[in-house]
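Below is a filled-in request sheet from our internal design queue. Each sheet records the structural input a requester submitted and the sequence that came back. We keep these sheets so that new team members can see what a complete request looks like end to end.

REQUESTER: design group, bay 2
PRIORITY: normal
MODE: inverse folding
CHAIN LENGTH: 349
BACKBONE (tokenized):
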């Protein structure tokens, strides 16, 4: 077995913890990339990996991303990520979640969890039975916290408007054509906000019925999932999978800007240069999609209410503007500018 620090993605992680609880069947990884700015925060993923090494790679990549995301969002938190290795049927029991909570608790607050792929707010409640280092719990109306999806969608919406201002030269989304890949929690929320503004929407989802239902609701056009990346539009908003911007797809883009909520959109570091070389405005994913983590971190810290969350999410367009201006001035790709800014903030620049 490869030692975690020999993984290419280890990248100076402070710690990588491996957990096993035989009674509940829990196998989990908690990767802590940085606690420079505060306790590491990042969601927990519940996923089946045919090769367990992929779970470690996922945890490493995602926790580094959380360091950058939290730093750029101005949160007093470091970056970490939990991954629970599910069985092929993805059986989830209260005992398994309680055991995961004990694992988190054993770290004494150095890692704070929340929802990620495969986890719900009900799961967070189960985890909270054995640790207090958990956020994304159901909350009362008006309070910070709860399901991060809608707040992420709001931040992405504000980021898309910023991209429209800069790349399309328009002050609103009215009449502007936005193509959205994936209309789940984030992409669906974004589509609704843009539709209210009178944007022209083309949408796609791997679940074709979901795309068609939303298209009917919003007066949008639904296209097959394999066509959305090549739609001619003003903005492409990836809100489904990571690694969708690669050599081949970037070459075929027909948009002025890419601004969406999906994590890790660039397949490789070289794709930052490719998108820049095509003169397509790119919104670094962890900057534009920070709304959800802002929401759950404020919940965890017990600081503030919905208004405070909204005020902080409202700073996302300004951060993007700062990155784009620096990118223009230095001719360095926006994704690289963002990474450099984040590295400086976590004391590694
Ligand atoms: P979700 O599961 O609610 O929605 C994802 C949607 O994408 C689903 O409808 C799915 O059918 C669709 N999809 C999957 N593969 C597709 C493909 N190849 N083409 C088109 N559609 C496809 O997930 P979500 O919470 O909306 O998250 C979407 C993305 O945003 C993910 O990359 C996630 O990591 C990222 N993100 C989410 C949050 C959040 O708060 N939920 C925060 C930050 C980042």
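RETURNED SEQUENCE:
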């Amino acid at each position: 077995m490869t030692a975690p620090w020999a993984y290419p993605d280890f990248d100076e992680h402070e710690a990588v913890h491996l957990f096993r609880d035989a009674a509940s069947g829990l196998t989990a990884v908690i990767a802590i990339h940085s606690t420079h700015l505060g306790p590491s925060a990042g969601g927990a993923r519940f996923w089946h990996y045919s090769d367990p090494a992929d779970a470690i790679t996922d945890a490493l990549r995602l926790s580094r991303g959380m360091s950058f995301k939290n730093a750029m969002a101005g949160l007093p938190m470091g970056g970490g990520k939990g991954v629970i290795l599910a069985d092929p049927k993805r059986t989830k029991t209260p005992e398994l979640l309680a055991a995961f909570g004990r694992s988190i608790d054993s770290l004494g607050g150095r890692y704070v969890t929340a929802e990620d792929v495969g986890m719900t707010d009900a799961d967070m409640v189960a985890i909270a039975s054995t640790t207090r280092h958990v956020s994304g719990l159901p909350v009362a109306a008006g309070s910070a916290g709860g399901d991060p999806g809608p707040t992420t969608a709001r931040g992405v919406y504000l980021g898309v408007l910023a991209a429209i201002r800069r790349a399309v030269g328009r002050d609103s989304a009215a009449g502007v054509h936005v193509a959205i890949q994936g209309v789940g929690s984030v992409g669906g929320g974004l589509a609704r906000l843009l539709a209210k503004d009178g944007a022209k929407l083309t949408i796609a989802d791997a679940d074709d019925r979901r795309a068609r239902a939303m298209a009917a609701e919003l007066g949008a056009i639904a296209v097959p999932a394999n066509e959305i990346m090549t739609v001619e539009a003003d903005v492409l908003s990836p809100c489904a999978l990571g690694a969708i911007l690669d050599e081949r797809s970037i070459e075929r883009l027909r948009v002025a800007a890419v601004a969406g909520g999906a994590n890790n959109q660039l397949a490789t570091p070289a794709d930052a240069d490719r998108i820049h070389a095509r003169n397509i405005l790119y919104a670094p994913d962890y900057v534009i999609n920070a709304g959800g983590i802002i929401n759950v971190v404020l919940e965890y810290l017990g600081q503030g209410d919905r208004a405070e969350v909204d005020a902080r999410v409202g700073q996302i367009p300004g951060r993007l503007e700062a990155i784009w201006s620096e990118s223009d001035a230095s001719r360095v790709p926006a994704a690289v500018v963002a990474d450099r800014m984040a590295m400086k903030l976590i004391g590694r620049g």
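SHEET NOTES:
- Residues 58 and 188 are 25 Å apart (CA to CA).
- Residues 148-149, 152, 181-187, 204-207, 210, 225, 239-242, 261-263, 289, 292 surround nicotinamide-adenine-dinucleotide (CB under 6 Å).
FILED BY: M.R.
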